[in-house]
């Protein structure tokens, strides 16, 4: 395990336990709801569960769930389950001895040093007829386009203060995301958007009711290129 990368992972881990908003957690549920009908088989690998917001759904979907997290601090935050295997490792060092029917990398590619190399590595762990699910924040989200108009960002994919605090190294658009996925050799079966977000997470959490939040989740399906997040289903 790279000592420098391990320190980087641990340095940003406190965001999830100290700064994560309830609306951040809602967005994770929305990601799950956007594609869980595509899940395959009995075994799942989740890379980078952070504090386990999606893990708590996945443990009910699979007979065996393996999670790989580079931060021991975050791994310890996740409750134990009979069908849950916890692995403390950087993704680049993880060497499974089995193939998985479903593999999930949610909000991972914007964090790692070499996203294409990671996808090329991960696809070797996929069982025949399995599916890989990838999700990233969208640089062309309406709230980022508005931030440019307001002079808060120079361009939509500029790293903002929240990107930096959570350890992002890049911001994707639909085009750059698809480009990296295709370059890795994965085949895209579906691409979609999650949540139409005109304001910041904090503004939404402080001012919107649940009916508004649910409505803008549904709206994101109609405007995927300008939704807050992008996902792809691959083989």
Describe the structure in your own words:
With 235 residues, this protein is an alpha/beta fold. The protein has helices spanning 3-19, 22-35, 55-58, 72-75, 115-122, 142-149, 161-166, 174-183, 201-207, 210-222, and strands spanning 43-47, 64-69, 84-88, 100-106, 126-137, 188-194, 229-234. The protein has a 7-stranded mixed sheet, with helices on both faces. Strand 4, helix 5 and strand 5 form a beta-alpha-beta unit.
List low-confidence stretches: none
Described by strand count, sense and barrel closure, the largest sheet is: 7 strands, mixed
Number of helices: 10
Number of strands: 7
Strand order of the largest sheet: 3-2-1-4-5-7-6
Mean pLDDT: 93
Taking all Cα atoms into account, the compactness measure Rg is: 17 Å
Query: What is the quaternary state of this protein?
Result: single chain
The helix-and-strand class reads: alpha/beta
Strand content is 15-25%
- What is the chain-wise order of helices and strands? HHEHEHEEHEHHHEHHE
Task: Fill in the keyword field for this structure.
235 residues, alpha/beta, seven-stranded mixed β-sheet
Quick overview of this protein structure:
It contains ten helices and seven strands.
Q: Secondary-structure blueprint of this entry?
A:
Blueprint: H1 3-19, H2 22-35, E1 43-47, H3 55-58, E2 64-69, H4 72-75, E3 84-88, E4 100-106, H5 115-122, E5 126-137, H6 142-149, H7 161-166, H8 174-183, E6 188-194, H9 201-207, H10 210-222, E7 229-234
Parallel strand pairs: 1-2, 1-4, 2-3, 4-5
Antiparallel strand pairs: 5-7, 6-7
């Amino acid at each position: 395990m790279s000592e420098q990368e391990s320190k980087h992972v641990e340095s940003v881990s406190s965001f999830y336990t100290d700064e994560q908003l309830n609306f951040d957690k809602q967005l994770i549920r929305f990601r799950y709801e956007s594609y869980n009908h595509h899940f395959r088989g009995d075994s799942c690998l989740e890379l980078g569960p952070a504090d386990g917001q999606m893990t708590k759904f996945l443990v009910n979907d699979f007979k065996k769930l393996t999670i790989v997290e580079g931060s021991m601090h975050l791994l310890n935050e996740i409750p134990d389950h009979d069908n849950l295997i916890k692995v403390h490792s950087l993704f680049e060092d993880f060497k499974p001895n089995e193939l998985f029917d479903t593999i999930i990398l949610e909000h991972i590619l914007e964090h790692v040093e070499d996203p294409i190399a990671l996808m090329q590595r991960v696809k070797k762990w996929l069982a025949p007829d399995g599916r890989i699910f990838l999700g990233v924040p969208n640089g062309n989200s309406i709230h980022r386009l508005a931030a440019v108009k307001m002079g808060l960002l120079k361009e939509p994919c500029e790293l903002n203060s929240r990107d930096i605090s959570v350890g992002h190294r890049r911001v994707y658009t639909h085009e750059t995301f698809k480009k990296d996925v295709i370059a890795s050799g994965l085949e895209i079966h579906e691409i979609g958007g999650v949540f139409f977000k005109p304001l910041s997470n904090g503004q939404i959490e402080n001012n919107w009711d649940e009916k508004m939040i649910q409505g803008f989740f549904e709206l994101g399906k109609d405007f995927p290129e300008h939704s807050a997040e992008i996902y792809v289903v691959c083989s």
